[in-house]
Design goal:
This protein is an alpha+beta fold and about 450 residues long. It contains 16 helices and six strands. Strand 3 and strand 4 form a beta hairpin.
Length: about 450
């Protein structure tokens, strides 16, 4: 839920934050009481600046701090805010039943009483380790079974998110004890539940062509829309919500798309021309040379800066099987979207595809080409795009930049092709790459 400047409450049922006031500051008794009403994501906001507050007073400063806290909280997308509530609810239940400060600032009773302070570990690490262990012993009331390791790890991450936006320093989550505890939960689960057939699969380019063909054969607006979207998602390595409309509001708008084309005047002089999707139908398709677009923001872009992308048009040939820009041109010529309408929508933005139909189309195409539909989804296009770039010897940094990955976690998506495996094997067994002289040199350096 987004909050404007007139919003009076942050949706966290926390206690107000009390702060200490330095006695050397010139703050009166009335101002001191006002200072203790400073709100935080842990507490509540006043309706606005007090009527008696004057600019420069302590009360007005309290109001500014309140608004700053709201803006900091709103830096996270609304979909992210609502996504992590379950983990925090369980954490609140744990802290309440065991008399633990949910913000990990005041040690619980056993800290000194039972000698936990003698462990040599930071208090937040001990408290969070206890919470994770508590989750392992917790039985879900609806299914009468315990939580799985990956689920517990996910809830711990949810708590991390909430603590971060409550102003708590969360560096303690990097402590080896907590990292090891979370990793052990996932490792134990994988030993008991093999994931060989449940991983998200990668969609190769040949399957993209099959999906596109099957969708166009439907002869419907939804089929045409998804046929263009499948190529767009694959080549752009975008997440589903970056191009098809979703609740996250991260998708591309028509007003953020610009086609580049070559325009020739009456004298035969050519010049670059930039046109929006709504009027691109006035230019022949063979004059289109590229398209640029803006993705508002994503879960890895919490500051909401967004990302500009560009696709150059490549003519179909023996080595080019997909004309993404040409497909976008034909779609925009048919629909003529404009303004804030989703790029992939029709009837003036009132109709657009849904994720279920998209996933079903991908699974159907997988069966057609002899692949298992299990693990195939819209995200498989993103995985397939990254894997294709990797197989083409594109370096990791370029893949990270194109796919908008902020960390090396993108490496888990890469599916090595047979050709890439053969190339690596040839390098390993070729004596020219690592000789006896190299081994002797390293041994001599190590012993010297």
């Amino acid at each position: 839920m987004r909050h404007s400047s007139s919003t009076t409450r942050i949706p966290y049922p926390y206690r107000p934050l009390t702060i200490s006031v330095c006695p050397t500051h010139n703050i009166g008794i009335a101002d001191l009481a006002a200072a203790h009403r400073v709100a935080h994501p842990r507490g509540f906001l006043a309706d606005g600046p007090p009527r008696t507050a004057t600019e420069g007073s302590s009360e007005y400063l309290v109001y500014l701090v309140n608004q700053a806290m709201v803006n900091a909280f709103n830096s996270v997308a609304s979909s992210t805010q609502g996504q992590y509530t379950i983990g925090w609810r369980l954490f609140k239940e744990f802290t309440s039943s065991h008399k633990v400060d949910p913000f990990l600032t005041v040690p619980f009773e056993a800290w000194h009483k039972d000698g936990l302070d003698k462990l040599g570990l930071p208090y937040p690490v001990v408290a969070m380790a206890a919470f994770i262990q508590w989750l392992q012993l917790l039985e879900t009331p609806d299914k009468n079974k315990r939580l799985s390791g990956p689920t517990i790890d996910k809830y711990a991450f949810h708590v991390r998110h909430y603590l971060l936006h409550c102003g708590v320093c969360i560096l303690f989550f990097l402590h080896p004890i907590l990292k090891g505890l979370r990793a052990s939960l996932v490792r134990q689960h994988r030993l008991q539940h093999p994931v060989s057939g449940s991983r998200r699969q990668a969609v190769p380019l040949t399957m993209v062509m099959v999906i596109r063909s099957q969708l166009l054969d439907q002869g419907t607006m939804m089929g045409k829309c998804l046929a263009v979207a499948v190529g767009f998602g694959f080549t752009g390595t975008h997440r589903y919500g970056h191009y098809l409309p979703s609740k996250s509001n991260h998708y591309v708008r028509a007003g953020d798309v610009t086609f580049e084309c070559i325009h020739t005047d009456a004298n035969g002089v050519g010049a670059m021309l930039l046109l929006p999707p709504a009027t691109i139908y006035t230019i022949p398709k063979d004059r289109i040379i590229g398209v640029s677009y803006f993705v508002p923001h994503s879960k890895t872009d919490q500051l909401g800066a967004g990302k500009y992308c560009y696709l150059r048009r490549l003519a179909l040939s023996d080595t080019v099987a997909l004309d993404v820009v040409g497909d976008l041109y034909e779609w925009c010529t048919l629909v003529r979207p404009s303004g804030h309408e989703p790029l992939f929508s029709w009837d003036r933005g009132t109709k657009f595809p849904n994720k279920t139909a998209f996933n079903l189309a991908i699974k159907k195409a997988a069966v057609t080409v002899g692949l298992s539909p299990k693990g195939m989804s819209s995200h498989s296009l993103r995985i397939g795009g990254a894997s294709t770039m990797y197989a083409a010897d594109m370096n990791g940094f370029e893949i990270m930049q194109r796919g908008d990955w902020k960390t090396l976690t993108f490496l888990i998506y890469l599916r090595t092709s047979v050709a890439a495996c053969d190339k690596a094997l040839l390098n390993l067994v070729n004596p020219k790459f690592y000789t006896i002289d190299d081994a002797r040199r390293i041994s001599r350096d190590a012993s010297s």
